[in-house]
Please model this.
Amino acid sequence: MRQNEFVRKGKEHFETVILPKLRLISEQVVNNMMIFIEGSVAYGFCDEQSDIDLDYYIDMDIDEDIRQSIRELFTGETYWYQGVRVSYGFSGAYWKFDLLMNDEMDRFWNEFDPYALNNIMRAIPVWDPKGSLALSQKKVECYPDEIKKKIIRGLWVTINDSGQYNFCEALKRNNIIEGRIYQYRAIEAMLRLVYVLNNQYFYPTKWLSAGLVNLQKDFGLRDALDKIAVSHCEEDDYKEFMKVHENMKQFMIKHDSIELECIDNYSMVFQKPFHIFSTF
Model:
């Protein structure tokens, strides 16, 4: 219910505050413009700390002076609407809508950002007379097979190198701080991988664990995280981590998620294309 209320406020804010000012700048631009809600409201995770993130994309060539006027409208002030802050985004550039609209899919997948993909798929349209958002979502509804394998290989490297190996090695040396760094680096990669193995895009880090409740299969990760959160024993944390590791490993073997030699020996990943990234 809270999500619906935030969406309603976002739409009302656009219609009453932003749209009239846009029409004064250019009616033609308004007819070729997409406004959408992204972030925690679109994810359904909004709470009393959340704001309403509005972003926009213009599907036409326009003069720079017009573009600057629109940019100033969206960046010049922070508005409050019915007690909720409304903030503005990246004017479409971050999401690479130009590439999607022009069907430059090879370039899009060469430059993609997983955070942007998740936002595109979960975005809620506020103003979209041309149906651009639905078209974009259709084009990126899932990773191409080889892109997906690159991501799985990269996450598996981090899970194993940081978690299975370096977390354990740090504990042997009683390097607790370094061990924790490796532990949570590996857990973040594991949290990302669980979404990919469920054929979903993962959230930015702030919402990674919140989305687990919506997954069909979590490989025991939710239970492990609950135990790790209250644990005061790094060795026990490692055991919980490795239980999830084994569950993921068996699933990937069964479903041929990546090559068997890469699953069994993560160093083999370095002989194949893989993708390691850091996002929000």
The beta strands are 33-38, 52-58, 79-81, 84-88, 124-127. The chain has 13 helices and five strands. Residues 109 and 267 are 25 Å apart (CA to CA). The two ends are 27 Å apart (CA to CA).
